[in-house]
């Protein structure tokens, strides 16, 4: 099978390349930055904001993993990269199946009365996104789902070696001997291993009868206390966790965001409402379709791999 992968030089895109190539597929990697040459891999440089790719080679499936990931940037940036970029991808390959790497951030914060905090794929996207990022991802999904045979994968808090987005944010929370955790120790955090996400992408490419929308998450959620301990251990941080509790976390995030916007800060504050939504609200994602329809079995979360290595890079092309 011939598969194109957008955002191929990013954290998620790179993992997808590894799995697709290991399964014997011919892969066209498209990204702003180069990727390491390998057998079965062709690379084309493409900035999605420039419009459709000129003279695109034919492909059977497009894995669309490119998106703008900085939630602090204004809507215009997200619209240009994530939304208009998706239109460019669809125009470039009008006859190909599309597998979109989206995000569970499109779900409402509190959409289920289930005491297990369980969210299934039939819950509609929120009408009140906390930042430009989930707003753009929801718009991206609407565009892709109009394509026959399209599949939307929704991971949550993707983790693994050299994560360039979430781990640096956690590292910023180290303060005076404490790792500040915006939530309660018992908040349930459901993570997604980047390797699991890549396996789900490959399965969706290979299965033309895949469900239209599929949650992708590890076998079980973890208590925030376990996440804090595991990440600190993996990165040799000596700071002890300090759990603020949800009310304090929300109040601090809103105050910090307000001050940052008044001062027109170019960088986000150490705490944002979007970040708090990942750690202060228990949300568990139903992975029945992932297991039963895609045949991908989630594994237990391995936090020992959520760390930086010497080969870590910056400026990811994509990350949900």
Number of domains: 1
Gyration radius, rounded: 19 Å
Alpha-beta classification: alpha/beta
> Which range does the strand content fall in?
15-25%
What's the CATH superfamily, by name?
NAD(P)-binding Rossmann-like Domain
- What spatial form do the alpha-carbon principal axes imply? globular
Helix content: 25-40%
Largest β-sheet summary: 7 strands, parallel
| Helical run tally | 9
Protein name: NAD-dependent epimerase
InterPro entries: Epimerase_deHydtase, NAD(P)-bd_dom_sf, NAD(P)-dependent_oxidoreduct
GO molecular function: aldehyde dehydrogenase (NAD+) activity
Pfam families: Epimerase
Could you please describe the fold and organization of this structure?
With 320 residues, the protein is of the alpha/beta class. The chain has one domain (2-305): Rossmann fold (3-Layer(aba) Sandwich). Helix content is 32%, strand content 18%. The chain contains nine helices and 16 strands. It has helices at 11-22, 75-92, 132-145, 166-172, 194-206, 224-234, 246-262, 273-279, 288-292, and strands at residues 2-6, 26-31, 41-45, 61-64, 97-101, 118-119, 151-155, 158-159, 174-175, 178-181, 188-189, 192-193, 213-216, 222-223, 240-243, 284-285. The strands form five sheets. A seven-stranded parallel sheet has the order 3-2-1-4-5-7-13, sandwiched between helices. A three-stranded mixed sheet has the order 9-10-15. Strands 6-16 form a two-stranded parallel ribbon. The mean pLDDT is 93.
């Amino acid at each position: 099978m011939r598969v194109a992968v957008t955002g191929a030089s990013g954290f998620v895109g790179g993992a997808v390349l590894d799995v697709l190539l290991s399964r014997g597929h011919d892969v066209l990697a498209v990204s702003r930055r180069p990727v390491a040459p390998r057998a079965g891999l062709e690379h084309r440089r493409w900035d999605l904001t420039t419009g459709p790719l000129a003279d695109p080679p034919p492909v059977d499936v497009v894995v669309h993993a490119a998106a703008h990931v900085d939630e602090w940037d204004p809507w215009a940036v997200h619209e240009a990269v994530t939304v208009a970029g998706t239109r460019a991808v669809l125009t470039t390959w009008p006859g190909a199946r599309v597998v979109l790497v989206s995000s569970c951030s499109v779900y409402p914060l509190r959409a289920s009365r289930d005491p297990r905090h369980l969210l299934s794929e039939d819950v509609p996207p929120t009408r009140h996104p906390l930042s430009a990022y989930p707003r753009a991802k929801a718009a991206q999904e609407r565009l892709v789902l109009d394509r026959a045979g399209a599949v939307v994968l929704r991971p949550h808090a993707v983790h693994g070696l050299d994560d360039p987005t979430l781990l640096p944010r956690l590292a910023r929370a180290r303060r005076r001997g404490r790792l500040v955790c915006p939530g309660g120790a018992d908040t349930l955090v459901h993570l997604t291993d980047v390797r699991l996400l890549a396996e789900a992408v490959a399965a969706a490419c290979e299965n033309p009868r895949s469900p239209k929308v599929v949650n992708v998450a590890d076998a079980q959620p973890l208590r925030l206390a376990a996440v804090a301990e595991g990440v600190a251990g993996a990165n040799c941080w000596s700071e002890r966790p300090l759990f603020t509790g949800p009310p304090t976390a929300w109040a601090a995030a809103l105050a910090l965001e307000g001050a940052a916007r008044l001062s027109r800060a170019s960088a986000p504050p150490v705490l944002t409402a979007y970040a708090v939504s990942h750690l202060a609200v228990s949300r568990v994602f139903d992975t029945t379709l992932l297991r039963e329809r895609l045949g991908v079995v989630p594994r237990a979360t391995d936090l020992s791999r959520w760390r930086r290595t010497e080969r870590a890079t910056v400026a990811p092309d994509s990350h949900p």
